[in-house]
Amino acid sequence: MKLKCPECDGDINVKDVVEGEILTCDDCGVELEVKKNSKGNIELKVAESEGEDWGE
Ligand SMILES: [Zn+2]
């Protein structure tokens, strides 16, 4: 399945799409969260880093 990066419009290939999963765009490096919209279609949203929890 091919999805589009909302940041750079690049193609992102995903094998298994799991809602809530975080993907990284190979082109621009942004982190994208897999979301399902109201129609049940999969779309990618830029994952916002809430707070300052960078401890990973
Ligand atoms: Zn991108």
Task: Please tell me about this protein's structure.
With 56 residues, the chain is mainly β. The protein has a single domain (2-46), classed as Rubrerythrin, domain 2, CATH 2.20.28.160. It is 0% helix and 36% strand. The strands form two sheets. The protein has a three-stranded antiparallel β-sheet, with no helix packed on it. A hairpin with a 6-residue loop joins strand 3 and strand 4 (31-36). It is globular. The N and C termini lie far apart (29 Å). Residues 5, 7-8, 10, 25, 27-28, 30 line the site of zinc ion.
Element layout with pairings:
Blueprint: E1 2-4, E2 11-13, E3 22-24, E4 31-36, E5 42-46
Question: What keywords describe this structure?
Answer:
globular; Rubrerythrin, domain 2; single chain; binds zinc ion; mainly beta; 0% helix
Query: What count of domains describes the coordinates?
Result: 1
The end-to-end span amounts to 29 Å
| Net shape | globular
Q: Class, according to the CATH hierarchy?
A: Mainly Beta
| Largest sheet data | 3 strands, antiparallel
Mean of pLDDT: 89
Q: What structural class is derived from the secondary structure elements? A: mainly beta
CATH architecture descriptor text: Single Sheet
Q: Percent of residues in helical segments? A: under 10%
Q: Tally of extended strands?
A: 5
Small-molecule binders here are: zinc ion
> Strands of the largest sheet, in order across it?
3-4-5
What percent of residues are in strands? Answer: 35-45%
Q: Report the total helices.
A: 0
Radius of gyration: 12 Å
Could you please say which CATH topology applies here?
Answer: Rubrerythrin, domain 2
Can you write the helix and strand succession as a string? EEEEE
Low-confidence stretches: none
